[in-house]
Amino acid sequence: MIINQLTFLLLFCLLGWSGALIRPVPGISTSDRDGRTLHRTKRGWMWNSFFLLEEWTGTGKQYVGKLHSDMDTEDGNVKYVLMGDGAGTVFEIDENSGDIHATRRLDREEKALYTLSAKAVNKTSGLDLEKASEFIIKIHDINDNEPKFAKDTYVASVSEMSNVGAFVIRVTATDADDEAYGNSAKLVYSILQGQPYFSVEPETGVIRTALPNMIRENREHYQVVIQAKDMAGQMGGLSGTTTVNITLQDVNNSPPRFPHSTYHLSTPESAGIGSSVGRIKAYDADVGENAEMWYSILDGDGQDMFNIITDSTSQEGVITVKKQLDYESKRLYSLRVQVTNTHIDRRFEQLGPFSDTAIVRITVTDVDEPPVFSRTLYIFEVDEDTPAGSSVGTVSARDPDTINHLVKYTIDRHTDLERLFNIDSNNGTISTLQALDRETSKWHNISVLATELSTALQTRVPVFIKVRDVNDNAPEFAMYYETFVCENVKAGQLIQTISAVDTDEPLVGHKFVFSLSSINPNFTIFDNEDNTARILTRRGGFNRREMNSYLLPVVISDNDYPIQSSTSTLTVRVCACDSRGNVQTCSTEALLLSAGLSTGALVAILLCILILLMIVVLFAALRRQKKKEPLIISKEDVRDNVVSYNDEGGGEEDTQAFDIGTLRNPEVIDTNKLRRDIMPEMLFPFRRSSPLKDNTDVRDFINGRLQENDSDPTAPPYDSLATYAYEGNGSLAESLSSLESAATEGDQEFEYLSHWGPQFKKLADMYIGQESQRET
To answer: What's a Pfam family in this record (predicted)?
Structure first.
């Protein structure tokens, strides 16, 4: 490797020197096709390109090449100037000698070439001696980059049982070195791990199978390590590796197999149809859809009694009941069951057969069964209006067990809420509890319960009872008829066609006969013999003023046995008609209009009547209103001593009722405030003289309390307002507090009340009078 690099270095140096300075030969001329002589202009110096190896490992700056101009006489007046990519940073030039050096190590993978320009300048005049010319410095590659794969780990799969050389995956590596120079970027692939199962193509990186018929059931996952090496795989080349995880994909190459040849199951005889008896399962080494199976019954004496279905989730065969089982009839059944793969791969049919069989024996166990009716349902018929207690029909049930138990019959009263039927608990005979009406209900659906006395097991059966029709209803009008006759009608004219209905249903159909209950001078009836009849007029000249309506009794009879008949009344109204027989009006308003009373007059009359009624009602309401009772009814009434007021005192804590400002300014006290609840006795009450302005007692009292608070060490350190209930000595009644009163009412004297004035006269009379009575 070192010898190769030295050879390349010597070659690049020779190329660099040969391209650094190309001196043209002066005086050479050439001729063109026309015979003219062309003279070549002489340049002082010229070059093409330089070559430089990347990753220089030497000491100092790396020499690139030398520039020299013919204008340079080596007297020191020429200066070389370098311009372009990396000038002054990556590359520098000796301005006197023209030597170019690289100032640092270069990497071709970062930048492969640099384009620069150089010129020769007179140091004294600063003029260009030569025009600037471009040249290229190319960076030659060395093998300094190892191959790299696109992924550190690849995931691939291949079908099991594949032939040798089956494609698995292609892995690709890249090398940042120059592919056009040497073998630095020429890669060779090899396998480091994964033999002898897989191989890799050296040039393409394609991984293929190396062994035939690899079986997933034996080993499913493989890890393969692939190496990519440059320098065409020679020694000294750089390399990189990647890991490929390969999974063998399953194919249907394993048939299903039962782990046992015989299975034993059991089920009670009471198991319902479709209920599960048990499960059997075959095993398949494949996975996914290749392991899907379906089960079937090939033969056996239980083929008609049982069925088998496949559970697609667990791949089990579920045996179910197909028909009702009976322990007393048969107790053991045998089935031959087959399992088969759903998806069979024809490539591996030689590994088959892909099915298996097993024997399933099912034992039926005995259970105590409920009674069984002789029928699944019963239908009885009974005539309507049959007397209570009449027999309808009989139901029968038995115990299917080997030991017969007694059975008791009852009716489920939830199905016979009206209690129309009864049943004999011993023999199952159904009878009526009341007469039935077909017109109310044609069918009655009840449920009969059969219960074993020993085990209380029950079975129910539906019983449908049809009520047969009996001619017990008379026919009647099919609808309500609004019949009218014109005043100008003629005799024998049709005014109405009637029909009838009957709730009964005779076997031969209805046949009604229509007639009048008596001879009518105004109308007659004609039976059409098709269950309809026509009403005709006997005369003409009807008048609404004489008779505005007629009642016509019509007798309707049926033809069933016994014959039923009814009389229906047809109301015929007399109306005014035009010449064509069209009704104009039948109301009484027309009669009033004909008498000369208009509609407006009628409305006015009704309005007046309504106003009079409202006045009478209002007057009666005012008369019934009670007067408000006076406060005092009589002097003899005991209640004359009690005067009630709506004002309610607030007690000792009521700061609204007591005006503290009165104590502070006695001059503003108003002693003559009038009560608002009673009428004052005097229009101008006398004014009481104001108390003395000094109010010494109140002032002394407040000052004393103030001194006590100021000298109290426990008082709070802030201003506070203290309120005292001191009445002063100016009150005529003195203190009214009950705290200073005598212990008993007998110790009190009320003579002073008589001196308080007329306002307290009632109070004085009441208390002074009571005191005198006690003394007496």
So the answer is: CADH_Y-type_LIR
Q: Residue 127: is its pLDDT beyond 80?
A: yes
What tens digit of pLDDT does each residue of 538-547 get?
A: 988 888 888 8
| pLDDT(109) > 80 | no
Mean pLDDT lowest among 440-454, 568-582, 608-622, 700-714? 700-714
Residue 16 burial class via C-beta count within 10 angstroms: exposed 0-12, middle 13-18, buried 19 and up: buried
Total residue count of the chain as it appears in this document? 776
Query: Which DSSP string do the residues of 186-236 spell out, in sequence order?
Result: --EEEEEESTTTEEE-TTT-EEEE-SSS--TTT--EEEEEEEEESGGG-TT
27: enclosing H helix or E strand: none
For residue range 56-95, list pLDDT tens digits in order.
777 778 888 888 777 877 777 888 888 888 888 888 888 8
- Report, in angstroms and rounded to the nearest whole number, the Rg of the chain calculated over CA atoms: 67
* Closest-CA residue to 511 (of 552, 564, 551, 434): 564
Dihedral class, residue 76 (left if φ above 0, else alpha if ψ from -120 to 50, else beta): left
> How many Cβ atoms from other residues are within 10 Å of residue 685's Cβ?
14
Q: Token pair for residue 237? A: 């080349």
Can you tell me the distance from the alpha carbon of 240 to that of 223, in angstroms, rounded to the nearest whole number?
17
The mean predicted confidence, pLDDT, of the chain is 79
* Tokens describing residue 757: 């004035």
Per-residue confidence (pLDDT) for residue 10, from 0 to 100? 40
DSSP 521-547: SSEEEEE-SSSEEEEEES-----TTT-
CA distance 133 to 128: 12
Residues 6+ apart with CB under 8 A from 575: 484, 485, 486, 487, 544, 583, 584, 585, 586
- For residue 322, pLDDT beyond 70: yes
Backbone angles phi, psi at 759, to 5 degrees: -65, -30
Q: Is the peptide bond before 371 cis (omega within 30 degrees of 0)?
A: no
For 109, residues 6+ apart whose C-beta sits below 8 A from its C-beta are 145, 176, 177
Q: What is the pLDDT of residue 659?
A: 52
Residues 6 or more apart in contact with residue 240 via CB below 8 angstroms = 146, 147, 148, 149, 173, 227, 228
Backbone angles phi, psi at 19, to 5 degrees: -95, -10
Q: Is the pTM of this model over 0.70?
A: no
Query: How far apart (Å, rounded) are the C-alpha atoms in residues 119 and 126?
Result: 12
Q: List, for residues 485-519, the tens digit of each pLDDT value.
A: 998 888 889 989 999 998 887 767 788 999 998 88
Would you state the structure tokens that stand for residue 119, as one six-digit string? 């010129």
Query: Is residue 269 scored above 50 in pLDDT?
Result: yes
Looking at 9-23, 337-351, 646-660, 738-752, which range is the least confident one?
9-23
CA–centroid distance for 373 within its chain: 49
The beta-strand segments (E) located in 194-345 are: 198-200, 206-209, 221-229, 239-249, 262-268, 276-280, 293-299, 306-311, 316-321, 332-341
- Among 109, 217, 224, 208, smallest CA distance to 163 is for 208
Flag whether pLDDT at 148 surpasses 80. yes
Q: Are 90 and 119 in contact (CB under 8 A)?
A: no
